[in-house]
Amino acid sequence: MAVEIKTLIHYPDLYFKKYAAVIKNGFTMKDDEKTRDLTESFEMISCDDKSELRILAIGTGQGLVDEVIIDLVSARFKAVVYVVVEPAEAELQKFKDMVSVKAGQDQWKNVTFKFLCTTIEEFLDTRTKAKTTEGFDVVHTIHSPYHFTDPHGSLVELYGILDKGGMLFVMLVAGPWERTNVKIGEYYFDPKVHFFGMSAVREKFLEQIKDAKIMTKFRAKRFRINECFQEDSEDGNDILDFITQIPDFRKTVPKEVDDVIFDVIKENCVKSGDDIMFGVDEEDMLAFK
């Protein structure tokens, strides 16, 4: 039976310390391949006849990936309404600061922003209670459904608030990191984190929305984890904590569980010269209404 633990999501400062270690070793949320895929995906929006494009962005953090999306849609559409739902106030403020900088550079003038410091559950509940009928042309959630209370139910509900012809865009881990997540989930759970990836989400979504038109895009990505194999390495332990999302993984997890999870991580690594590279593949799911 899985044991309840508190993952890194409960410790924001610690989370970003661990995140810095993986960034230093080649992990990135923005790269040329992802930008290319985002461009191709958002060019598929079929709303050119609308006076304004309405986008709902869920769990954006500071807006690193959103910057690419906003550049794309602001260049294509005359007017854009961009509604941001992000529960972390500090991250939301960084997004607002980015928008202010862009405004100072005379960019995104045709985009109207609405920032909501709230959870997806609170946002959807407020819509239901207010009997809101206004929909969206695009809803996107990038590496956020792990933190939804009911990820499968919420994604179905988000698909439901799309206008006809709209697009739900979901990005999650796949491949090695997904397999690692699934193994961790056999031993541990956190009500605020789901240890899954795109395979489970896509399968469940298609069970519930049988008539959805689905497309997927897969990206194979890797980053360096050499130091994970050095037990006294601070960077190595930070990387291991980030991969597993378990603070002080080596001290928290019993040795027999440590061995199982670490074996899964090793199985999903490849050698590149002197470097040991862990797979952090991503998959996008596009669901059209």
Secondary structure layout:
Blueprint: E1 3-4, H1 12-24, H2 32-42, E2 53-58, H3 64-76, E3 80-85, H4 89-104, E4 111-116, H5 120-130, E5 136-142, H6 151-160, E6 162-173, H7 175-185, E7 188-189, H8 198-208, E8 213-219, E9 222-224, H9 234-244, H10 249-252, H11 255-267, E10 269-272, E11 275-279, E12 282-288
Parallel strand pairs: 1-7, 2-3, 2-5, 3-4, 5-6
Antiparallel strand pairs: 6-12, 8-12, 9-11, 10-11
Write up this protein.
- The protein has 289 residues and is an alpha/beta fold.
- It is built from eleven helices and twelve strands.
- The protein has helices at residues 12-24, 32-42, 64-76, 89-104, 120-130, 151-160, 175-185, 198-208, 234-244, 249-252, 255-267, and strands at residues 3-4, 53-58, 80-85, 111-116, 136-142, 162-173, 188-189, 213-219, 222-224, 269-272, 275-279, 282-288.
- It has a seven-stranded mixed beta sheet with strand order 4-3-2-5-6-12-8. It has a three-stranded antiparallel beta sheet with strand order 9-11-10. A two-stranded parallel sheet has the order 1-7.
- It is globular and about 60 Å long.
- The model has no long low-confidence stretch (mean pLDDT 94).
